[in-house]
User: Which sequence fits this backbone?
């Protein structure tokens, strides 16, 4: 990720300087595609990076948060509950703005890319925590009791018996969440992270042709969405052992 | 024990033996509902005790307290000379922590009404998971043990299958094998055939009978199968309203019930003098 500085000017010039005319109407649509596509690909890489990093961190936070909400220790449950409800109950856009504009005023400045990832993690990780919590609670009590009868420790019970079964229940919901997160990445363009949406907006300001630009953008997001769907279908099949 | 103490209360030879399990003044309440009332109960090494009684009489809770699935409201349980629910600290009994429970409950095994096999593991894995993770056996040795037990319950061919592909009776046989690989000193059977189709009850009872015959394991059998209790048990305990109302060798309990309650209860099962269901 390029951090806070937005599009490197050299890159932008390379893509736009060759346009034959500064008059917007003179750029014919076929040129729009060929000129903007390289930029869109740069943004595509950034979006994919956001999905991977924020997705992974959301996943981790989901388990930490979900398990903390089921902790034996009440203070752990309270703190986790507050954090989760807070980030679930506030807008991702406002969280982004707060981290990007307000936090520096308090003396903490994070790299822009990190702000985007952290905001996505907090928001989608909070939703994920509820997925983890409810999936664990959905496992019948008899499973825990059988594990106790075999003298497993609480850790072994969770790791070998409960979580593997709960994970299977979580997968479809996590698939959904990852697609939501992928779409949520479009918002980070508003804090100048150069993802796909950012480039398309820049291109629109320079050369117009909204229809072509936004059509390209839709297709690009759809491609990632399809890939995520296929990934989770595959995972669901992989983890369905033992079910008839 | 009440008046049964003077006469022989079990057909098992307990001369000179110390009980392996001692319940002392054990009470258990769920909210306002007192399901066990100051129970005293001993189980001897190798003895097989059938626990019978109407539903809600506290029989299942007896087993669940010993398996540490429920916490007693009052009283103590000892297993092989150690307190189960308490630790001795400076001569005083304090509630046990998870570590203490882990140490003591290794002697106990349990078979559940609803089998509770692990659906995400093969039958083999169901049997080897705890021996490897809890007992620390090498995988090979655990598999040897598991094979031996699957043989015993007649489920060898299903080792690679998942529980969902088995009938209820087969699942319960696997569950019995799973408890046995841990080699507990005391086995608890909590209504092991109550959730089964009638045609598979027999196969499970036969497996339990086999184990009862060959083992020197203590067994606590909570059951509604009176002829089975009669055949397998050294002692029958009749529970009602949270108390042991009557106990004795099956020959006496089924032929000469002393209390009106037990007579009434047995009537419901159509049990004749031989303990056979009619």
Assistant:
């Amino acid at each position: 990720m390029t951090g806070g500085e937005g599009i490197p000017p050299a890159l932008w010039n390379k893509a736009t300087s060759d346009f034959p005319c500064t008059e917007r109407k003179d750029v014919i649509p076929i040129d729009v595609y060929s000129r903007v596509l390289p930029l869109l690909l740069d943004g595509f890489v950034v979006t994919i990076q956001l999905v991977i990093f924020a997705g992974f961190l959301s996943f981790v936070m989901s388990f930490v948060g979900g398990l903390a909400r089921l902790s034996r220790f009440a203070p752990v449950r309270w703190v986790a509950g507050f954090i989760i409800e807070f980030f679930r109950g506030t807008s991702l856009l406002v969280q982004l703005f707060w981290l990007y504009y307000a936090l520096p005023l308090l003396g903490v400045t994070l790299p822009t890319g990190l702000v985007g990832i952290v905001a996505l993690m907090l928001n989608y990780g909070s939703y994920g925590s509820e997925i983890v919590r409810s999936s664990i609670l959905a496992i019948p009590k008899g499973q825990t009791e059988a594990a106790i009868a075999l003298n497993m420790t609480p850790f072994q019970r969770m790791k070998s018996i409960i979580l593997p079964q709960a994970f299977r229940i979580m997968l479809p919901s996590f698939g959904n969440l990852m697609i939501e997160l992928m779409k949520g990445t479009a918002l980070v363009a508003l804090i100048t992270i150069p993802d796909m949406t950012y480039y398309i907006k820049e291109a629109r300001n320079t050369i117009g042709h909204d229809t072509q630009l936004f059509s390209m953008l839709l297709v690009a997001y759809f491609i990632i969405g399809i890939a995520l769907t296929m990934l989770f279908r595959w995972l669901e099949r992989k983890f369905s052992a033992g079910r008839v | 024990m009440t008046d049964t103490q003077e006469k022989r209360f079990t057909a098992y030879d307990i001369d000179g033996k110390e009980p392996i399990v001692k319940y002392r003044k054990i009470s258990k309440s769920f909210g306002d509902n007192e399901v066990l009332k100051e129970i005293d109960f001993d189980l001897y090494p190798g003895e097989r005790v059938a626990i019978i009684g109407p539903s809600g009489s506290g029989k299942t809770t007896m087993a669940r307290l010993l398996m540490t699935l429920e916490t007693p409201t009052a009283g103590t349980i000892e297993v092989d000379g150690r307190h189960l629910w308490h630790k001795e600290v400076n001569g005083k009994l304090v509630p046990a922590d998870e570590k203490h429970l882990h140490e003591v409950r290794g002697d106990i095994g349990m078979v559940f009404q609803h089998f509770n096999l692990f659906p995400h593991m093969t039958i083999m894995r169901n049997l080897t998971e705890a021996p490897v993770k809890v007992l620390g056996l090498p995988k090979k040795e655990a598999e040897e043990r598991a094979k031996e037990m699957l043989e015993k319950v007649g489920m060898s061919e299903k080792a690679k299958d998942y529980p969902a592909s088995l009938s209820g009776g087969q699942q319960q046989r696997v569950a019995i094998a799973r408890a046995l690989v841990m080699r507990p000193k005391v086995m608890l059977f909590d209504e092991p055939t109550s959730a089964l189709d009638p045609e598979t009850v027999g196969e499970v009872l036969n497996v339990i009978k086999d184990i009862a015959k060959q083992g020197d394991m203590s067994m606590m059998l909570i059951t509604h199968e009176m002829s089975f209790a009669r055949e397998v048990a050294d002692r029958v305990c009749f529970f009602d309203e949270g108390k042991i109302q009557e106990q004795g060798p099956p020959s006496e309990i089924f032929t000469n019930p002393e209390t009106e309650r037990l007579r009434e209860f047995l009537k419901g099962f159509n049990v004749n003098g031989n303990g056979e269901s009619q």
Q: What stands out?
A: Residues 1-5, 18-23 of chain A have pLDDT under 50 and may be disordered. The interface with chain B takes residues 140, 142-143, 145-146, 148-154, 156, 160-161, 164-165, 168, 241-244 of chain A (CB under 8 Å). The two ends of chain A are 45 Å apart (CA to CA). The CA atoms of residues 10 and 16 of chain A lie 10 Å apart.
